[in-house]
Design goal:
Layout lengths: L1 H17 L2 E3 L1 H11 L1 H21 L5 E14 L11 H4 L6 H15 L6 E18 L3 H67 L5 H35 L7 E3 L13 H11 L1 H21 L5 E14 L8 E12 L7 H67 L5 H35 L5
Length: about 450
């Protein structure tokens, strides 16, 4: 990863210094992987599902919470709220004994304790630790964790698939841009040859060796090629801008280093390719995970008929006093409980959920079989396209050789005045067409081989 970052940094440094970036195919792929927003979103999606899995799994563990509070209360009662209580001590006469006075004092004190103070202060402090633990949920919690885990792995594999698609698209766009540049170069070479040939015919016309008709035909050929050159240059520029946009570059002044050359291609047997694809294609793994998720969802819905059992407990430590909370003002309490709930009748909704889950499972299995058939067809199409493109390369290679030799012969015949100008023009046209066809054939063979490897589930 560090080497990749250094490579990308050097590319941007080269661009800032020289105004043009030289890119190999591998450098383009690394830059696309770093800058592509779709791949970045897929990476974030993986992280999101990982945290969702951790969140669901956390429900297996006890849930502990701490709460507490401090409170100060000041009360001032109105005068009307404080009754005037008669005093028994004041009602005693001189004949009252000591015992009578003592009893009257106790009674007065007892009644006065029921009369609130007009002003009062109260301080209180409390803290509570609560715990809840699921014991049994009919398998719904375990199945929920299983689903979350499978969805997390599903996103990981989707990210890999997104990355492989990005690599293929970058490779295709890189070579397509290179092809457009080479087509423009071939058209420019054809125009240069036509100009050179026109100059030769002009010289021969001045010497009286050729007719005016030959001169006009040579000039017409130049005029015919100029629009083709402009069109090829425009297509090359548009392709370059498309590649720059794909790589998230602001400028499109790129120099593509790698040529369109056929890589070393291994011998591939069609039946083995199909077998390998059915074993290794990421889409197959994604489909299997989808079937597994549907199975777990069915078990999850069946768990709705089973009871839910859980334990709760809490411990509270508190203190309160009118003036100041001291050591003897503290107390505590705790409680432990176990509870359960079980559906008796839900309007048949749970039965409907189970039937729906069964239909979803059957759909997933049908989709999986359909996907296998489509992948097998994809491999066969990619294989035969690759074989056809290889044959085209062989044919077009021979055509370029023949067209080159034909132009040489036509030039020699015309210089010796044993042929007319049409031979030269026709030979030049045949060579240009052969070169263009050869470049297109090489591009098609490289891409079809890459597509076949991708269809077989191989990492690009």
């Amino acid at each position: 990863m560090k080497r990749k970052l250094i490579t990308i940094f050097m590319l941007f440094l080269a661009f800032s210094l020289f105004g043009q970036i030289s890119l190999t195919l591998q450098e383009s792929i690394e830059m696309a992987k770093k800058n592509n927003k779709g791949l970045q979103k897929a990476r974030e999606e993986v992280g999101k599902y990982r945290q969702e899995y951790n969140n669901v799994r956390g429900n297996l563990l006890p849930q502990v919470s701490l709460s507490g509070g401090y409170q100060y209360k000041h009360t001032k009662l109105p005068d009307s709220a404080i009754p005037q209580m008669p005093s028994l001590m004041n009602e005693l006469d001189n004949t009252a004994t000591h015992n009578d006075s003592t009893i009257a004092g106790f009674i007065d004190y007892g009644f006065s304790s029921f009369i609130p103070d007009q002003k009062s202060d109260e301080y209180s402090l409390a803290g509570t630790v609560s715990l809840s633990q699921v014991i049994f949920m009919g398998g719904k919690l375990i199945n929920g964790i299983n689903i979350a885990g499978k969805l997390y792995h599903l996103q990981e594999k989707k990210y890999f698939l997104e990355e492989q698609n990005l690599i293929f698209n970058t490779t295709d766009l890189y070579y397509k841009t290179k092809l457009a540049a080479e087509v423009a170069e071939i058209q420019a070479e054809a125009l240069d040859f036509a100009n050179l040939y026109f100059q030769q015919v002009s010289d021969m016309y001045e010497e009286g060796l050729v007719s005016e008709y030959d001169l006009l035909r040579a000039e017409l050929e130049v005029q015919k090629l100029e629009p083709d050159v402009l069109e090829a240059e425009k297509n090359s520029k548009l392709a370059m801008e498309g590649l720059a946009n794909h790589l998230n570059l602001e400028e499109s002044e790129l120099l593509l280093v790698d040529d369109i050359n056929l890589p070393e291609m291994e011998e591939i047997d069609l039946d083995n390719a199909v077998t390998e694809a059915l074993q290794n294609r990421m889409e197959i793994e994604l489909s299997k995970i989808g079937v597994d998720v549907s199975k777990v969802m069915l078990r999850y819905e069946k768990g709705n008929f089973l009871p839910n059992i859980g334990i709760t407990a809490d411990y509270t430590y508190f203190g309160a006093d009118a003036d100041q909370i001291e050591s003897d003002d503290w107390g505590s309490s705790y409680q432990v409980g176990i509870g359960f709930s079980m559906p008796i009748f839900t309007g048949l909704s749970n039965s409907s959920k189970i039937k729906k889950a069964k239909h979803t499972l059957n759909q997933s299995r049908l989709d999986h079989r359909t996907l296998q058939e489509m992948i097998e067809l994809d491999v066969r199409n990619s294989y035969w396209q690759w074989q056809a493109d290889l044959e085209k390369v062989n044919v077009q290679t021979r055509n370029v050789e023949l067209a080159t030799k034909g132009l040489e012969i036509a030039n020699a015949r015309y210089e010796n005045q044993v042929s007319n100008q049409l031979e030269i023009i026709d030979a030049q046209l045949q060579l240009k067409v052969a070169k263009l066809s050869f470049m297109n054939a090489k591009y098609a063979a490289v891409i079809s081989y890459t597509k076949l490897r991708k269809a077989m589930g191989r990492e690009l």
